[in-house]
Amino acid sequence: YKDRLLMERDPHQLIEGSIIACYAVGLSQCFLYVRGEMAAAQERIAVALNEAYDAGYVGKNIMGSDVSVDIVLHWGAGAYIVGEETALIESLEGNRGMPRLKPPFFPAAIGLYGKPTIVNNVETLSNLPWILTNGAEAYKAHGSEASPGTRLLAISGHVNRPGVYEVPQGVVTFRDLFYGEEYCQGIRDGNELKMFIPGGGSAPWFFPEQLDLPLEGRVVGGAGSMLGSGAIVVMDETTDAVRACLRVVRFFARESCGKCTPCREGTTWEETILQRILDGHGRPSDLDLLLDVADNISPGPYPVAAWEAEGLDAVPFPPRQTTICPLGPSSVAPIASTIRRFRHEFEAKITRRD
């Protein structure tokens, strides 16, 4: 959400940030890769890029200087997997978007067309013009000492005022964000919070006891999850945990590129088992089977007994991988989170008590 808004509302800011980044590292070629579903963003960047070229801000000898930067706009086909930087590079080269093995294909060493490449997020690049204009100290005046500056967060789900908010890092808590008058203004219909995803679908889930954690990467990471993409999904007490889990797992199963066997086979298997449980045909062995599949995709103590033996209160994070990229392990986060916390909801559906 946040990157789409930045591209649609202020594409010139992104273009200017890209030029600054190119100048800083001595590059003359830049590519803007826009996700396939973001048609409005692609069109507005195209218009802004033409305007920038016409004004002499992009191209050869920018503003009469000896700096030349060409920017190519590339429209993707809508694959989630190309959010992984090497899969994005593969797509840019005209290949199917699949992650590359690292090493040796760290983009900074061997990237696009075999050349050294840096890959940055839209929000990162869009910050550069403001920082260059106002100075680093002005940027650091916002947020906490450990996490200076602001970041954009997209809050969706069961809040009274969902949206994209720019918040100072390390100062605002999840409680402030969900209940604050300047932000989401509380949970819908006066309901109680049941759970929330703090950083995009691949993040382990949080619960009411994590509400007072500050929006700071290291703190959230230490609590067993991540801020990730800044996409926060809020779910109230009326949410069916099994159905919510299936919804996220199905997304990863459909978006798997299929390159790695644990992800290709495992995510589909996870979806099948969850759908079976939701349809009322679950088996008593299905929960252990789900955790076993999860363990094969991302090894780590998932059965509750193993959790308790290691003194863990949350899903092991960051995840261990049997895959090239984190997409497969991302499907494990909702399964481990919900079975650990709401095992009774799964069991109720399996025994048809719901």
Summarize the structure.
Helix content is 43%, strand content 10%.
Structural commentary:
This protein has 13 helices and six strands. It starts with a helix and ends with a helix. The model has no long low-confidence stretch (mean pLDDT 93).
Taking the alpha carbons of the first and last residues, their distance comes to 35 Å
Uncertain runs with pLDDT below 50, 5 residues or more? none
Gross geometry: globular
Order of secondary-structure elements? HHEHEHHHEEHEHEHHHHH
Q: How many helices does DSSP assign?
A: 13
Number of strands: 6
Beta-strand percent range: 5-15%
Structural class comes to: alpha/beta
Indicate the radius of gyration in whole angstroms: 22 Å
**What percent of the residues sit in helical stretches (DSSP H or I)?**
40-55%
Strand order of the main beta sheet, please?
4-3-6-5
Mean pLDDT: 93
Query: What does the largest sheet look like?
Result: 4 strands, mixed
